[in-house]
Amino acid sequence: DGGPDPCCQFSAVTGERPFGCIVCSKSFFNKYDLQKHMRVHTGETPYGCSHCGRHFKLKSTLNVHIQSHLGIKRYSCGVCGKACSRQEHLNVHMRTHNGERPYRCSFCDKAFTQSHCLKTHMKSFHPEKQAS
Question: Entry's PROSITE patterns (predicted)?
């Protein structure tokens, strides 16, 4: 009938994860989740964007990506109204309002809203302290 496998439903209830990855030993409630996980190891990206040709491991990631081509921005800032296509982008934007700067330089008193800003700072102001 195509419905959920009763065996898998039972596993989820009991907490048993009988489907194990042979590469990293992570385990899953059902075979489908294990198959999706295996793409981490194989690099398989079966879902392609018809707009730009970019490929993704998960269909849900492709769907979010397609929204960027269509200009769909479902998340908006309650302070200034800025709209974002992804919740993560709105979270980063909110730091401009709340002053949060979670990425701190360990060599001076500078702090940044995004990790790439800290990396740029390190290359510019502390290049000799970069890990090689």
Answer: ZINC_FINGER_C2H2_1, ZINC_FINGER_C2H2_2
Model confidence over 59-93: pLDDT tens digits?
999 998 999 899 999 999 999 999 998 899 999 99
Please, are residues 97 and 90 in contact by the beta-carbon 8 Å criterion? Answer: no
pTM for the model stands at 0.58
Do the Cβ atoms of 125 and 109 come closer than 8 Å?
A: no
| Per-residue 3-state assignment (H helix, E strand, C coil) for the chain | CCCCCHHHHHHHHHCCCCEECCCCCCEECCHHHHHHHHHHHHCCCCEECCCCCCEECCHHHHHHHHHHHHCCCCEECCCCCCEECCHHHHHHHHHHHHCCCCEECCCCCCEECCHHHHHHHHHHHCHHHCCC
Asked if the model's pLDDT at residue 116 lies above 70, the reply is: yes
